[in-house]
Amino acid sequence: MTEVRKFSVGALTRVEGEGALEIHLRGSQVERIELRIYEPPRFFEALLRGRDLREVPDIVARICGICPVAYQMSACQALEKALGMTLPPEISHLRRLLYCGEWIESHTLHMIMLHAPDFLGFENSLEMARKHPDLFDSGLRIRKLGNDLLTILGGRAIHPINIAVGGFYRTPSAERLRGLLHEIVWAKTKLPELLRQMADWNFPQFEQDYQFVSLHEPHEYPLNTGCVAASDGLSIPIEDYEQHFREVHQPHSTALQSLRLPSLTTYLVGPLARFQLCRSQLTPAAASLANQLLGSVPLRNNAFSLLVRGIEVLFAIETAETLIRCYRDHGFPCRVEIPRRSGWGCHATEAPRGLLYHRYEVDEQGQISTATIIPPTSQNQAQIESDLRALVPSLLSASDAEATRACENLIRHYDPCISCATHFLRVRWRQNGTLRREGEPV
User: Fold this and answer.
1) Terminal alpha carbon distance of the chain
2) Residue 156: what pLDDT?
3) Cβ distance 25 to 405 under 8 Å?
4) Ramachandran area for residue 401 (φ above 0: left; ψ -120 to 50: alpha; else beta)
5) CB 264 within 8 A of CB 287
6) Could you give phi then psi for residue 425, rounded to 5 degrees?
7) What is the pTM of this model?
8) For the chain, the helix, strand and coil percentages under 3-state DSSP, each to the nearest 5
9) In Å, what is the CA distance from 380 to each residue of 213, 232, 325?
């Protein structure tokens, strides 16, 4: 009789949101893989309809407590396009600086608190901290630099309140920003030291032929602007995004999955995709370190996103230093007046986890008629399932605990926005009709 085996993960944690994993095997064949996002939909797109467009930045910030700036920046620029607004370059520079703060704090949180314990063999970051205090303490100090940037520019580190359609409610003082330069100089020295240590860790050998998708700028690493590019040569304006990508519903998930048209294929967004498509636009120190640690060979192993995130943090620190040293807190308005007109606009930015797309229609009263928001994790969800489908056959001889950990680690490479918590998986194996619980919460 063919062996039937069911691999079930009841709850995914240490990621943002609520989800589960279920894998069905018949012999050595994978019959079905379902990454189930069962968190109730929050209906932000419906919530925005009928609201004054000036409320949008504060509402969409609540979608994510780790990367609220990404939602605010995509929303503001989509609405500004809808209204035909032109902003002074100083506002664009401040927004780029704000985004640098989010990349620093979000990437460092994932690298040190969530991802590093997997490589070092610890169950959580607190256990790791006792054995590797310098790694833990330095990571927290670098993350604080990002939080300080968010506080100065956004009014507070979580769900910033100083972001407005048209600019900022108040611009920061140059003196306060320059007060961060001491920490920036320290971080520029310390971070490469930490990344060289990480490069010596044991990375799993698992490669996929990814289709990479990210924004692309000819002269700078993408944050707030760019065209939509893919590794197969696609290069389109953001306005054509929905002609090439489509969200589809899967019965096992409350989250939509985004796929490429016309063949509905999976693709990868996030650090590895940006790095593959845009590494020539990295700042000097980040580019040099990338060459030292990762060479010039294209990366097809998403485990190396750990190092790529660190390189992007170094890029963000370098960029922040340049913007702060050039900043003058006078000579430009903090906010451009919002015209009263109808229109539609869309925009995408690069959230820490990947491309984030927003589209809005606005009526003549300045109210939102329709809203579409496509976050990075909905774009990566189908690719995660594809990765698991390729990985699972190599785990058939592994114990429940070993298989659980391998799947857990693979999912965590993506840093998915599902839910931030302390523990991760509960595993159930069903073999020959018998349920046995070898894996417990990890």
Assistant:
1) 33
2) 93
3) no
4) alpha
5) no
6) -125, 145
7) 0.89
8) 45, 20, 35
9) 10, 17, 37
Domain ranges of the chain: 4-39+385-436
**According to the model, what pLDDT value does residue 39 have?**
54
Residues 6+ apart with CB under 8 A from 411: 12, 15, 21, 35, 384, 388
Cα–Cα distance, 378 to 395 (Å, whole number): 26
Phi-psi domain of 380 (left: phi exceeds 0; alpha: psi -120 through 50; beta: other): alpha
Q: Rounded to an integer, what distance in angstroms lies between the CA atom of residue 255 and that of residue 268?
A: 17
Do residues 334 and 163 lie in contact, with contact meaning Cβ atoms separated by under 8 Å? no
For residue 98, give the H/E element and its range.
Answer: helix 89-108
Question: Beta-carbon neighbour count of residue 373 at 10 Å?
Answer: 19
The closest alpha carbon to 9, from 432, 430, 413, 396, belongs to: 430
DSSP string, 366-412: SBEEEEEEE-HHHHHHHHHHHHHHHHGGGGTTS-HHHHHHHHHHHHH
* Site of tokens 């407005």: 164
Q: Tell me which residues of the chain have a pLDDT lower than 50.
A: 1, 11-15, 17, 419-442
pLDDT score, position 429: 46
Name the token pair of 26.
């018949």
Q: What is the pLDDT of residue 252?
A: 64
d(CA 165, CA 84): 12
